[in-house]
Amino acid sequence: MTSKLIPSDPSKVMVIRQVTPNITTCSAPFYRFGQMKVGGRGTIVRLQSGALAVFSPTALTPEVRATVEKMGNNVGYIAALDFEHHIFITEWAKAFPSAKLLGVEGLPEKREKSQATAGNKFQHVWTQKNKNDMKVDAEFDAEFDYEYVGSHANKELVLCHKPDKTLIEADMMFNLPAHEQFSKTKDDPTSGVLTKLFVGLQNTKGDATWQKRFLWYIASSGDRKGFNQSAQKIASWDFDRIIPCHGDVIETGGKGIFKKVFEWHLNAAAK
């Protein structure tokens, strides 16, 4: 199934971009269910200590490896930001065995069920029970705000890199079409019936009504009150940029777009 999701030669289509002096993104094609063009993105953040934090890692191509080396080669943290974004965790953990693995509840058990992903120990796992008391370590906690949105269907971990005022997230919200992620391919990121339908659902244009509906009626349906509270907490952070896993980076004005997309949840939380 993985072969239908990701490119066979990611080196040819990976877009590596320095977003800020501290943040580099690795963007590549990704096909949800093997058909919908949603794109995939890993984010590497260099902390003030020099340690690197890697979020939702993409394939560790020679070019990505060279980028890591240029950034100091000190990978201290490798994080799967939700229940789905873990395909390349094993590859990165093998290359950087001293790095701490971060994930969400249920993911370690899920990975142990397959020989392809079993054998990696997660040092920090967010759960609904520990989310309010969770700490990673001094250097990480000094630079990141984080919220575990266990009420989301995919069990989302959302972070804000405070020095660069940048929100980093996986499936909490989308910003399709995925122009950057397909820019080195011959594929139009808007072509195909399923892609057109999903782009219609998962974009931030206009009043983003369809994404609001998706979040309200589907993503948060299991625990809407908890989801509302998480959205409210994230909206209180100081950020301007949003780096999503799926779709283009929102370079500026991200706080306003986040509040627009999560308007229904924020209004409900305020009542």
From TrEMBL:
Query: Which Pfam families has this protein been placed in?
Result: DUF4336
Domain of life (superkingdom): Eukaryota
Q: What is this protein called?
A: Nuclear protein Qri2/Nse4
Query: Origin organism of this chain?
Result: Cladonia borealis
